[in-house]
Amino acid sequence: MGRRNSPRDRRPQRRKSVTHAHGESGRAGAFRCAQCRLLVPADAPGTAHRNHCPHCLTSLHVDRSTPGDRAAGCRGRMAALGLTTRSDGEWLVVHRCVRCAELSANRVAGDDTPARWYAWRCGPWRPPPSRSGCRSSPDRAPVRRSAATAGPADGARSRRAAHPGRVRWAPTVPHRGTRRPRTL
Amino acid sequence: MSSTEPNPATFTCVRCGLAVRGFGPDGDPRDHCPSCLSSRHVVDQTGGTARCGGRMTPISVAVQRGGAWLLVHRCVLCDEMSEGPVASDDNHLVLMGIAVRPLAAPPFPLDLLGEV
């Protein structure tokens, strides 16, 4: 157990004012994933507020601010957007609703798929938007052409070469969802 | 936005006090400080004016399929979350720190990844 994950430092979870013992579809404490249709039990190790599928990490937009309040009338599918951490080291999955673009964060459960978490952070690595000129290299140096020899097509190429920082990087991973994470 | 006006010429960062131009180097309106990446809660999710005015801290970096980076903010007063694009002159050190922060404190042993 890590230094930050000791039970003494763990933040107490908020108590639910509404309990959904029978579920929305009549199943006792279970829900069906909106993405992969997996039947997910509500009991999860490590968290009392499971709201996403442990396989594909997709959620449903039914709560507004308090877990379990069912105050949102959207009911859109919430796709996982990214990861964040609390100050005590707990991981949170950031979801975004595909219908209304609402954002929410939920703590990860103990049986969530770790490969999906690391697929975001280790798989789809792309460089951030670079500053203009900071990634200039000799092979990307602007080609100096004289005005007499440069045609219209050459003019477009030289404009692109004059901003080497705006050259887009080629995608390294065609589909990040099925890529296995690197061994760290 | 980081000011009460929609697209001001300059605004002052509520965290580090930096005077920031309202538009980025690409001409896009800027919603956070390029130095500390903090923002201010004056626009709600629907694009209207929010009355909170609290400071918004950057909590996460999301990578879109096209390769663009998104910065997710959370308000310290009302816990409202928002997202915005990353400008090209944002502080790369802070950006990378936010992106790799989950890897610095994994909630499970990293040997588990070899078994997945």
What is the mean pLDDT of chain B? Answer: 84
Oligomer: heterodimer
Which of globular, elongated, flat, extended, rod-shaped describes the shape of chain A? Answer: globular
Tell me the number of structural domains of chain B.
1
Summarize the structure.
The complex is a heterodimer of chains A (184) and B (116). With 184 residues, chain A is mainly beta.
Characterise this structure.
The complex is a heterodimer of chains A (184) and B (116). Chain A has helices spanning 114-121, 152-161; strands at 30-32, 39-41, 59-60, 77-85, 91-97, 103-107. Chain A is built from two helices and six strands. Chain A has a four-stranded antiparallel β-sheet, covered by helices on one side. In chain A, strands 1-2 form a two-stranded antiparallel ribbon. The two termini of chain A are 18 Å apart. In chain A, 10% of the residues lie in helices and 16% in strands. Chain A has two domains: 18-123, no CATH class; 131-166, no CATH class. In chain A, strand 1 and strand 2 form a beta hairpin. Chain B has one domain (10-103). Helix content of chain B is 10%, strand content 25%. Chain B has helices at 92-99, 101-104; strands at residues 10-12, 19-21, 39-40, 55-63, 69-75, 81-85. Chain B is globular. The termini of chain B are far apart. At the A-B interface, strand 4, strand 5, strand 6 and helix 1 of A face strand 4, strand 5, strand 6, helix 1 and helix 2 of B.
What topology emerges from the helices and strands here?
The complex is a heterodimer of chains A (184) and B (116).
Chain A: E1 30-32, E2 39-41, E3 59-60, E4 77-85, E5 91-97, E6 103-107, H1 114-121, H2 152-161
Antiparallel strand pairs in A: 1-2, 3-4, 4-5, 5-6
Chain B: E1 10-12, E2 19-21, E3 39-40, E4 55-63, E5 69-75, E6 81-85, H1 92-99, H2 101-104
Antiparallel strand pairs in B: 1-2, 3-4, 4-5, 5-6
